[in-house]
Design brief:
By secondary structure, the chain is mainly β. Helices cover 10% and strands 30% of the residues. Strands 1, 4, 7, 12, 13, 19 and 22 form a seven-stranded antiparallel beta sheet that branches.
């Protein structure tokens, strides 16, 4: 069922500093005038002729408008299923910027459609954000129906994992990840930022694990809800990576919030980061330590800075021993100290008790930098290419913006206000 268009009353209140009757063009201008905006798809602007694909608003003088193709990556990589077209992305008829596309809960396992800019049309362009000294922000205005996977970014997860879904695959490629925004991953509905230094895996895990999760979580809203429900359900998902601070942060509706993972060594995925932290600590000690793996690659060590102590809490204490919990910006460390004959305490053990997930400390100095040889991924919206062929995120997407810098909290709060300004498609 397609929701009907809701007409607004002139009695609607002003939201913050924004009038509820600001036009979609005004709101588009708010996004595109934010410094660093290199592309913004509002799903209203299209090519003037021909296929009339959706195109991005780009800075004055730019020649690449990043038209979006429709594709089914199962067809492209497995040779199964049908091709996709724009007909596979129903339109809502309204949204924060005047229109929105639907990513559906596909029941055909051979059909995983997405919109994308092929690598050949984006390599070395303004959205090909990579290399050292590069920051990035991705903002997506969406209504989440279900799922926790990709919203938008350059995040080809690869089709080379050995699992049931890859049996008989026709086209095998390693991961080609750079940056992307997800609808949660390990926390469904959170705004999850993801970046990669190598396009592939992290900490000897099969997956990339440099990711952050906002404290806030977007609710699940049926995509065929009434117009009034949908108009009140827009969320502003965002991720920022600041190369100067090495911080990767997830933001929901302009708010990041703190998120910690307690006891990371028992977590299904993050235990790999724990091992990377442990191996880095053992490696710093002279000689081969118990539990140290000399073959662990140093470029996969995880060593968040612990040079500035935030707080200390005594967990337990006896005459001869004291156990402290020391909090730093990205880690909480349990430290055991023994009292010597002279009465002074000496550290005898330390372990990683908690790891901060928002913001997440990215341990590398560069984003993955693919050469122009087929090792770079496309920019995709709605889904990413990956081995498991899962359905991923479902719901409505009403805008996708990419910035070549890390936006600040005030800027993201301003963009988040635009989610509350739905209007009819005729208002543009």
């Amino acid at each position: 069922m397609r929701p009907h268009v809701l007409l607004f009353s002139a009695a609607l209140p002003v939201i913050g500093t924004w009038s509820a009757f600001a036009t979609p063009a005004d709101r588009v201008a708010t996004v595109t005038s934010t410094p660093g905006c290199v592309a913004f798809w509002d799903f209203v602007q299209r090519e003037p002729s021909g296929a009339r694909r959706f195109t991005a608003h780009v800075p004055a003088g730019a020649t690449n408008h990043f038209p979006l193709d429709a594709g089914n990556y199962v067809h492209d990589y497995w040779g199964e299923g049908r091709t996709a077209s724009y007909a596979d992305f129903p339109l809502l008829g309204r949204g924060p910027f005047g229109e929105a596309i639907r990513i559906r809960q596909e029941t055909d396992a051979t059909f995983r459609p997405f919109l994308f800019v092929p690598r050949a049309r984006l390599h070395d362009s303004s959205i090909d954000l990579k290399g050292p000294g590069q920051s990035v922000t991705v903002v997506v205005w969406a209504i989440r129906e279900s799922g926790n996977h990709a919203l938008a970014g350059i995040w080809h997860e690869g089709t080379d994992l050995k699992q049931n879904e890859t049996a008989g695959i026709k086209r095998v490629e390693r991961g080609q990840r750079q940056y992307a925004l997800f609808a949660g991953l390990n926390r469904a509905g959170a705004a999850c930022g993801h970046v990669s230094e190598n396009g592939a895996s992290s900490f000897l895990n099969r997956y990339a694990l440099h990711k952050s999760n906002s404290a806030g979580v977007a609710p699940a809203v049926p995509a065929d809800s009434s117009a009034a429900v949908l108009d009140a359900s827009w969320q502003c998902f965002a991720m920022t990576y600041n190369h100067a601070t090495h911080e990767l942060t997830g933001w929901l509706n302009g708010v990041a919030g703190d998120r910690w993972l307690e006891n990371p060594k028992t977590d299904t995925l993050i235990k790999s980061a724990y091992q990377a932290w442990l191996q880095a600590r053992l490696h710093r000690e002279p000689g081969l330590q118990p539990g140290e793996d000399p073959a662990f690659p140093p470029d996969q060590f995880y060593q968040p800075p612990e040079d500035q102590l935030v707080s200390t809490k005594i967990l337990r204490e006896s005459v001869d021993e004291r156990v402290e919990l020391r909090e730093f910006r990205y880690t909480r460390i349990e430290v055991t100290l023994r009292r010597g004959a002279d009465g002074t305490f000496t550290e005898t053990a330390r372990d990683l008790a908690a790891l901060r997930l928002n913001p997440w400390w990215f341990s590398h100095v560069r984003l993955y930098t693919p050469a122009n040889d087929g090792t770079g991924g496309p920019f995709t919206i709605g889904r990413v290419i990956h081995s498991s062929r899962g359905v991923g995120f479902t719901g409505w997407i009403g805008g996708v913006a990419v910035f070549n810098r890390a936006l600040g909290a005030e800027e993201l709060a301003k963009l988040a206000q635009l989610r509350s300004l739905a209007t009819t498609a005729s208002g543009r």
